[in-house]
Amino acid sequence: MTQPGYDAMADLYAETFPDPYQFPIERHAAAAFAEEAAGRPGRTLDVGCGTGHVAADLAARGLDVLGIDPSAGMLTHARRLHPEFPFVDGDASLASVPDGPIAAILARFSLIHAEPAEVDASIRLWADRVVPGTPVLVAFQASDDAGPPLAFDHAVAPAWRWHPDEFARALADAGFDEAWRIVYRDTNYRFPMAQVLAHRR
Ligand SMILES: C[S@@+](CC[C@H](N)C(=O)[O-])C[C@H]1O[C@@H](n2cnc3c(N)ncnc32)[C@H](O)[C@@H]1O
Questions:
Q1: Which residue's alpha carbon is at the smallest distance from atom 22 of ligand 1?
Q2: Cβ neighbourhood burial of 128 (10 Å; 0-12, 13-18, 19+)
Q3: Collapsing DSSP states into helix, strand and coil, what is residue 70?
Q4: Which residues span the membrane (predicted)?
Q5: Which ranges of the chain have pLDDT less than 70?
């Protein structure tokens, strides 16, 4: 899989978003996730890690992190900015993630770029790779309308936004039970945003 949109925008993205979090609540969500992942055996995966800035924050919180992204351009920045930990070329299927224990999985604003059926399939593959209790945290542009995900005109690549209930349903169908969610809004951004934390059943 490739991500030509992100390859083309990678330099601008790295320059525009030097900080991993746009809103304080996002930092708190990452901290809560990291607290759960800490002490669990294995690597914490940052799926769709982009320039690696969130992976770096998780590593600073003591996690053994592996970043995964399908965009060569984004990975170039990730490896330049954070040479101290590994990144692999790959996607949400985790096909390129070496065998071994997985402590936790984070996917921030990356699954939005996978077609909804691919999201369902990927989360099922996650379920096959992790042990009961494993936390996953997913962040995404949300919809207030119940029902299936809605395609939207993301500036970089095809994207879908999900009603939080629908994402929780996808997680539950794959074997992950929701523990908590946040929905947050900003007057300068057109969509609500959501994060769902769930555990492998
Ligand atoms: C909006 S950026 C978010 C980057 C990072 N997670 C963050 O929070 O800053 C979306 C990232 O998802 C990646 N991506 C796109 N399709 C993907 C897929 N099917 N699986 C995993 N990552 C994907 C893109 O290459 C891009 O780096």
A1: 48
A2: exposed
A3: coil
A4: none
A5: none
Q: What are the distances in angstroms from CA 8 to CA 4, 13, 61, 85, 89?
A: 6, 10, 31, 24, 16
Which ligand 1 atom sits nearest the alpha carbon of residue 139?
Answer: 8
- Going along the chain from its start, the domains and CATH numbers come out as 6-200 (3.40.50.150)
Distance CA 120, CA 193 (A): 19
Amino acid at 113: H
Output 113-116 pairs: Cβ under 8 A, ≥24 positions apart. 113/3, 113/48, 113/154, 113/157, 113/158, 113/159, 114/160, 115/158, 115/160, 116/148, 116/149, 116/160, 116/162, 116/170
Each residue of 51-97: pLDDT tens digit? 999 999 999 999 999 999 999 999 999 999 999 999 999 999 999 99
Using CA atoms, how far residue 11 sits from 6, 14, 158, in Å, is 9, 5, 19
Cα 118 to middle of ligand 1, angstroms: 14
pLDDT, position 107 = 98
pLDDT score of 3: 85
Identity (one letter) of the amino acid at 193?
M
Q: From CA 145, how far away is CA 125, in angstroms rounded?
A: 27
The structure's pTM equals 0.97
Q: Give the end-to-end CA distance of the chain in Å, rounded to a whole number.
A: 30
Question: What is the Å distance from ligand 1's center to 183 Cα?
Answer: 20
The finding on whether 36 has its CB within 6 A of some atom of ligand 1 is no
